Amino acid sequence: MDREWMRQKLEAFDELTTLYWGIRFAQHDSSQERKRLFEAEPTVLKILHRLDPQSGEKEILGEDEWSGLTINVDEIRRGIGILADMDEWEVRLAPEGPSFRADGLHPWVWDAALTFWESNHYRAAVHAAANSVNAHLQDKLGRRDVSDTKLLQEAFSDKAPEAGKPRLRLPGDQTDPGVQTRQRGALLLGQGAFAAFRNPAAHETGDLAEQEALEQLATFSLVASFIEQCVVLT
After folding, report:
1. What pLDDT does residue 66 have?
2. Which residues contact 177 (CB under 8 A, 6 or more apart)?
3. Which of 17, 68, 108, 185 could form a disulfide with 224 if both were Cys (CB 3.0 to 4.6 A apart)?
4. Residue 137: half-sphere exposure toward Cβ, Cα within 13 Å
5. Cα–Cα distance, 63 to 73 (Å, whole number)
6. Alpha carbon of 104 to those of 14, 99, 107, 114, 115: distances in Å?
7. For position 168, what pLDDT does the model report?
8. CB burial string 130-150: b at 16+ within 10 A, e below
9. Per residue in 27-51, pLDDT tens?
10. pLDDT band of 96, cuts 50, 70, 90
């Protein structure tokens, strides 16, 4: 909705009403103002209905028994009041959303990102978190020959361990379809995080928005949790 346009229309109608009554009480010809009121009324009614769809049909202009004009100016001013407060309603009356504690992220992620986060370097915070997850994964597997997406692919591969290529397995019965699904999901999540977040953080310029960076850190936090709970098969 174009609230500014709506407000201007209602305020113009209110001012025209005041002008009409002033001319009429002075016993001058108010026919031109009366004509302008009726011309403006359809748009005013549309605006009032949009502001309060549940209120039913409103009547703004009418005729009394002496063929005089009646104007329901209270509805106009009520509409102006609604428009004046709508922006504040959205802020003050919005449902309470859950708060997100960054320090509740996995320590591999938050400990690495914290220094950059506090200085508002959000892309660098994501990059540091990704490097930390990669380093912990390398340590867990005892590997330095591969990293990032390639390391995740080999770590979560459903193939049996090979010489120099240990595997990660989530706890539980490995024949259980639920465990197998989570295993595949951990692989895909890790691949996606490194491909979509780590690589751009390392090579692109310009910073991330705070919310976007926080969401990316949360993704790496989930990846870190999967890695940490896995057992190593050699």
Report:
1. 63
2. none
3. 108
4. 33
5. 14
6. 55, 11, 8, 12, 16
7. 94
8. bbbbbebbbebbebeebebbe
9. 888 899 999 999 999 999 999 999 9
10. confident
DSSP 177-205: HHHHHHHHHHHHHHHHHIIIIIHHHHH--
CA–CA separation, 139 and 52 (whole Å): 62
pLDDT at 138: 96
Q: How many residues in the chain?
A: 234
Helices (H), the chain: 3-25, 31-51, 73-92, 107-118, 122-141, 148-155, 177-193, 199-203, 210-229
Of 71, 55, 90, 54, the closest CA to residue 20 belongs to 71
CA 123, CA 197: separation in Å to the nearest integer? Answer: 9
* Cα(231)–Cα(79) distance, integer angstroms: 64
Give me Rg for the CA atoms of the chain. 33
Q: What sign results for the dihedral spanned by CA atoms 137, 143, 144, 146?
A: negative
Supply the DSSP symbol for 165: B
Nearest to 168 by CA among 143, 131, 196, 193: 143
The answer, yes or no, to whether residue 169 has pLDDT greater than 90, is: yes
